[in-house]
Amino acid sequence: MIKKVSIILSTYNEASVIEDTINQIFKNLDDVEIILVDDNSPDGTYDIVTKINNPNVKTYKRKSRGLSSAFLLGLINSSSEIVGWLDSNMGILAERLPEMMTKLENNDIVILSRYVEGGVDLRSRKRVLSSRLINFFCRNILSREIKDYTSGVFLMKRNVLLSAVPVAVGHGEFFIEFIYKAFKAGIKIVELPYTHPPDVEGMSKTAPNILKFCSLGFGYLIRVIQSLFLRK
User: Fold this and answer.
1) Of 213, 214, 216, 156, residue with least CA distance to 181
2) 232 assigned to some structural domain
């Protein structure tokens, strides 16, 4: 039986928040499956999820780490005609899923965006600045039609994959490439404003030091430039 919605969660050290995020998703969507991919969290995240007695929660534990490959694994194992991605430490945003479902009736991809009118980013100054710089670069190199190329929350119709397929390389930059490919293919994309909540765990997971932070940013910029030369 095909579920109405599949929500993919990728986790690493989310023990303090993951149960609430899952509960929030079930609270806001009636017919949903959750596909959780855990990258061998040492804090027991996976154990917490496996104790949740719900057949609509699928869990996968890997020894490797990687946001893009975790998303792809979740996508492969999803069974719905509508697929979404929610940052696992932002369960509060699950309350926006019903509105996103409504917007999906006349669109192919719905993105929660910090950079359309009404959008706000309450994270640390370092993260806000880096996000703004990357998105400024994306809008000027790729297209100004998309405002938030690095959003962590979206829903899409599964048939989008007939026109654009995410490439599981790198960190969050895979979404930049994916959303730009979809845009070039004529996929209907709409962005809804949202408030990105303050940092829960700071920069520790994605960029534990300034060297890693700069390296990650450089990877994003390279991926943006490469996206220009992709075929439709």
Assistant:
1) 156
2) no
Tens digit of pLDDT at every position of the chain (232 positions): 456 899 999 999 999 999 999 999 999 999 999 999 999 999 999 999 999 989 999 999 999 888 889 999 999 999 999 999 999 999 999 999 999 999 999 999 999 999 999 999 999 888 898 889 889 989 999 999 999 999 989 999 999 999 999 887 777 788 999 999 999 999 999 999 999 998 765 434 554 445 555 556 656 667 667 777 765 4
Here the CATH number for the domain that contains residue 202 is 3.90.550.10
pTM for the predicted model, two decimal places: 0.88
Q: Which helix (H) or strand (E) holds 132?
A: helix 125-141
